[in-house]
TrEMBL record:
The keyword Oxidoreductase does not apply. Residues 100-112 have a biased composition (Polar residues). Transmembrane segments: none annotated. Signal peptide: none annotated. It comes from Arenibacter certesii. Gene3D superfamilies: Single-stranded right-handed beta-helix, Pectin lyase-like. The keyword Amino-acid biosynthesis does not apply. GO terms for cellular component: extracellular region. This is Right handed beta helix domain-containing protein. Residues 100-127 are annotated as: Disordered. Residues 243-390 form the Right handed beta helix domain.
Length: 567
């Protein structure tokens, strides 16, 4: 237990540190927020022990004797109060770490923005640059094209900076409301001399984002903190259009546009871009786009998108690109986000990692959390978390992709909370899903077919299929109505074929599977099923001819289930 009650402000980061002592090991350590603090080390019993609440973070590795370990935790789950943490070790050899009574006792290190000061709540290290600031040109709200740009007092305006930018130029953009300038960049930099547009608060280099944006949920865009672009009319226009290669944009706020940034160049960096309220906000329509990337080798890092009605972060034909430490939130009930993170349009060899899709409870649209769609191969989504929304592989052109070391958290096992799951749709095939944790869902895994209506480059890949030849390795499911849902609708012959589960752990489920559509050669190997109420429910009526579950179980373990084990 840790006492955070004296913290006066919003917690912005949290790390748990501990030292391995007496017993080394390996495997995954998961950290959860505990429910309840009415315990001490001397009176802890089975009746007053805290139960697990929200997932905070995890680490997976070997733990040699004497090693100092650090786990980054989800700061948004912490409040200024006494806090219990629960550690769960799985999939490895046991280990021991030093206790409170030793000199190497565990530490919870938090940073927070003080509520007792009017200074901007930037990253705690943002008050000083971490590296020397390169010589560059200055841009301010009141700058003029007739100035020389060499100081704040003789700064340029933003439109002029875009107009004159050339390879190697660095533009420092001071905090302020820049309104709605027309910003289109045609000329780019080079590999050794990129063009850089970097926002700052008071001094160039004083805003530095680490492992996520300097913007946090419930913050408001604030022109006193970072440069702000504001649409002149809601849900219209694009804040920045850039066609150039080797360009970097950092520390910018964007609000109210139809589209935040359209980036068509190669070797582009978008870092600590905050974009909010994009597209129509007062009724449900496919409007609002955050960071739209069509160039190869793009890095999207530490960015934050809030309430983009249609698409928040999209890689479309953006080969070898990377999205890292980004967050997409949706809490607008009138036009909630449709696609949070989307890989499509022939994007290959891209990575989305260390990122979060967070959908508020009760929104009318379930959303697509982390989605690979239509035509995309050999992409990777890793160490990502979806709250109340899904991970999704959709269309037959989605092949040879990997989802691993990631998490899905639903709202409940009620049918009204169907939105959080792993979805395999419309013929997605030959993909690997590895070490995925799924908790509190209606259906943990959904294989289905529907007419999406989208036709991408080169033709329609919306196959009449529930997916085939996919491998599910190391899947953990806890507390679900059904581990697997197959089909539903009227395309009765859309089958799921040759999908395989290995080394997985399923617990606290109502049904192992509920099937409506055909299955062929489904396998569960070396997997554990515990605390289940029902085995398989094969739908009747119009589905009766198609719903038989064609499955084999090899070397599986069955514990405390309310049905007879099949093997």
């Amino acid at each position: 237990m840790f006492d955070l009650s004296k913290i006066d402000g919003q917690i912005t980061s949290a790390n748990l540190e501990f030292t391995i002592s007496s017993d080394p090991g390996h495997g995954t350590i998961e950290v959860y927020l505990g429910k309840g603090t009415n315990w001490t080390e001397t009176n802890l019993t089975g009746s007053n022990k805290p139960s697990s609440d929200s997932f905070l973070g995890s680490i997976k590795k070997s733990y040699p004797l004497g090693s100092k370990e650090k786990i980054s935790l989800n700061a948004e789950s912490f409040n200024a109060e006494k806090t219990s943490l629960i550690l769960l070790h799985k999939n490895g050899n046991d280990l021991a770490f030093a206790s409170k009574s030793t000199s190497s006792s565990p530490k919870l290190t938090v940073t927070y923005s003080s509520s007792s000061t009017s200074s901007p709540s930037l990253d705690p290290e943002a008050s000083k640059p971490i590296a020397p600031v390169a010589k560059g040109y200055f841009v301010t709200v009141n700058g003029r094209a007739t100035n020389n740009g060499l100081s704040e007092s003789s700064a340029w305006n933003l439109e002029h900076a875009f107009k004159v930018a050339k390879a190697g130029d660095v533009f420092y953009i001071k905090a302020g409301n820049y309104g709605n300038p027309k910003l289109v960049l045609y000329k780019g930099g080079t590999a050794g001399n990129p063009i850089k547009f970097i926002g700052y608060n008071r001094t160039p280099g004083d805003i530095v984002s680490h492992n996520g944006s300097t913007f946090k949920y419930r913050d408001q865009v604030d022109s006193n903190k970072m440069p702000l672009l504001t649409a002149s009319r809601a849900a219209t226009g694009t804040a920045i259009i850039q066609y150039a290669d080797y360009v970097e944009f950092e520390n910018l706020q964007i609000t109210g546009y139809k589209t935040g940034i359209q980036s068509d160049g190669n070797h582009v960096v978008l870092r600590n871009i905050v974009a909010t309220n994009l597209g129509t906000q007062n009724y449900n329509t496919y409007s609002g786009f955050g960071l739209m990337v069509t160039g190869n080798n793009t890095l999207v890092e530490n960015c934050y998108i809030l309430n983009a009605g249609a698409e928040a972060i999209k890689l479309f034909g953006a080969n070898n690109s990377r999205v890292n430490n980004c967050s997409v939130y949706s809490d607008n009930s009138k036009n909630p986000t449709d696609y949070y993170f989307l890989i499509a349009g022939g994007t290959n060899n891209a990575i989305i990692e260390n990122s979060v899709a967070n959908r508020a409870a009760g929104l009318s649209h379930g959303g697509h959390g982390f989605t690979i769609k239509d035509l995309a191969e050999r992409n990777t989504i890793r160490n990502c978390t979806a709250y109340k929304t899904n991970f999704e592989l959709n269309f037959s052109g989605v092949r040879f992709n990997t989802i691993k070391d990631s998490f899905i958290y639903g709202a409940s096992t009620n049918g009204n909370d169907w939105h959080a799951n792993l979805s395999i749709f419309n013929g997605a095939n030959n993909n690997l899903i590895k070490n995925l944790y799924i908790q509190d869902t209606w259906a943990a895994i959904n294989w289905a077919e529907y007419n999406d209506g989208y036709v991408g480059p080169g033709g329609d890949r919306d196959q009449v299929s529930c997916g085939y030849d996919n491998t599910f390795d190391g899947i953990t499911v806890k507390n679900t109505n059904r581990i697997l849902n197959v089909g539903g609708g009227t395309n009765y012959t859309a089958a799921a074929k040759r999908n395989t589960f290995i080394n997985s752990d399923f617990s606290n489920f109502r049904s192992l599977a509920v099937t409506y559509y055909p299955t062929e050669n489904i396998k569960f190997t070396n997997s554990k099923f515990s605390n289940g109420q029902y085995f398989v429910t094969e739908a009747g009526g119009a589905y009766a001819r198609y719903s038989k579950f064609n499955v084999t179980y090899q070397n599986c373990t069955w514990v405390n289930n309310n049905f007879r084990a099949p093997n």
